[in-house]
Amino acid sequence: MQKLFSWASKWWLGLIPLVVMWGFAAWNNTLPVEADLSARSSAALKDTVLDKTRIAVDGRDVRLAAEAFSEEGRRDAVTAVETVPGVRLVDDRTRLVPEANPFVWNAERDVVRVTLSGSAPLPSMKARLTEAARKEVGGVEVADQMGLARGAPPRFEAAAMLLLDQIGKLKDGKITITDTKVHLSGMARELGGREAIAAALKNLPEGFSIAANEIKAPPYIFQAYKDPVAATVTLTGYVPDNNVHAAIATSASRKFFTEKVVDNLKASIGAPGAFNTAVVAALGALSRLSTGTLVVSDREVKLSGDALYEGAAAEIRAGLGKDFPKSWQYKPEITVKPAAGPVDGTVCQQLFSELLTKSKIRFANKRAEIDPDSAGILDRLIETALRCPTVNIEVVGHTDADGEDSFNQDLSEKRAQAVIDYLVKAGLPPSRFTAVGQGSTQPVAGNDTDEGKAQNRRIEFLVR
Amino acid sequence: MPYLVSFHLGWLIGSLLLGFCMGWISVVQRGKGTSKVTAWWLAALAVALVAASLAHVVPGRFGYWFDLGLIMFACYLVGCTIGAWLRDRVVSRTAPPASL
Questions:
Q1: Which of A59, A160, A173, A261 sits most deeply, having the most CB atoms within 10 A of its CB?
Q2: How would residue A431 be classed by pLDDT, with cut points 50, 70 and 90?
Q3: What is the ipTM, given to two decimal places?
């Protein structure tokens, strides 16, 4: 031991190179040590749930700043860094994420995007909600503006997921969770969407309740477009059921005799009352236009297009509203088609014959009342009569062979007269027309079949 | 400590070798070393520095450098001890017994 002291008293000389070495070691290793400890600390925090984590290493001391979602999580994070090999001290700058009171979460949909805002309780849940929204709305952009906060009610995620499932059913609108109260507003994408959302909301997790459900159904739309160039009438939109669908399709095919009816209608619930009556009446008005568009949106009917002559335009503007229930609104935008050039009697006769070959003037059974479905053909006959103002026209009525001859004769005369009355009412001079009844004396087909009888019941226009 | 050792192993081996050389030389070196009083004071200083290190008194980078210095110094001392002891063994084996 004595020797050791004697030797040790001479060891101080080596301290000079040792200090130099120390300087070099410190110079070389400070930054690598700090980088290494920073990486190790980050790795240690990988499994902890923190927000806004910042790690700064000074020598071997780590300053940990982060927001934790629970006191336990906060303590665990600090402990995790403290136990990293090589860390000397941990400067704990962690704090808890602020508590939201009330805890509000929103999902808002507009035309171009879905925006998620308000608070989410955990970063992972925030990501899951955003992902769920993306899946639900397909290609629509999802903007994540959610912050993080404590204080979410129990089963928040289940409730938010269920509500996100509904966002796809909305055209636009907003869904809000305020603590455990759910508020919905906006418009459903499709008819029936509102009802589907209301049904889904019954599965909200326990504890959550609906404060307000102000989801509106989209307007119940029926559209018809008459295209004279393509000679089509295109029906689109909704009808309440298959019976109404069939009734409207039949009515359309009777009214539009020169056009092909393209039926793209879909059956859906939510039709306003008296939908069928209103649509049939409106289609009748459309059939009188040379070109036109009919839009029935809920209880509002918009009809625009060109009437064949001024009288028809005035009648359509004034008359159609009467056919609708009182709560319905009617907005006609009717203009008059420019009058076609005059033609001579021969051409006029040809035009009459063509029209009456394509369609016929219909009457009530065994009576002389003109069926409203014949307004279209009558308008075209009037338009034609206006093009040949100098010729006189004989309106000839024919019946089938059913019933007594005298009745049929009388009926054919009355029907011919009813047509003339219609033409006169439309503004044509009565002096140009003569009513002739032929009864069943001039059949064009056999009277032994219904089809033949239908062909025999007819009105003819003869230019004299 | 294990982290400091493993991270600075090269430097610590260097310190150990430096100490070994110093220890090797110190056995045969003539001349006076530090006085006993100074040695005690230096020992007390070393203890105080170790205590300061363990108490984490020095913060940040200075603290790291301080710890590094102490651990290099410890290696140096170990090197010195080993070097001196080995040299002493060599010297005592080669010297004639009469000189004792």
A1: A160
A2: very high
A3: 0.89
* Residue labelled with tokens 């040379």: A290
- Residue A107's nearest CA partner among A134, A76, A69 is A134
What residues of B are in contact with residue A29 (Cβ under 8 Å)? 7-8, 11, 68
Interface of A with B in 6-45 (CB under 8 A): 6-15, 17-18, 21-22, 24-26, 29-30, 32-33, 36
Interchain pair B18, A25: CB under 8 A: no
DSSP A339: P
The closest of B44, B73, B87, B19 to A3, measured between CA atoms, is B87
Q: pLDDT tens digit string along A71-99?
A: 888 999 999 999 999 898 999 999 998 88
Shortest Cα distance from B91 to chain A (angstroms)?
13
Q: Which residues contact A357 (CB under 8 A, 6 or more apart)?
A: none
Listed range (A83-87, A353-357, B14-18, B89-93) with the worst mean pLDDT: B89-93
Cβ pair B25:A10 closer than 8 A: yes
Chain A / chain B CB contacts < 8 angstroms: 113
For residues A406 and A451, the answer to whether their CB atoms sit within 8 Å is no
Which of these, A239, A242, A306, lies nearest to A275 by C-alpha position? A239
Which residues contact residue A331 at a Cβ distance below 8 angstroms, ignoring those fewer than 6 apart?
A300, A301, A302, A303
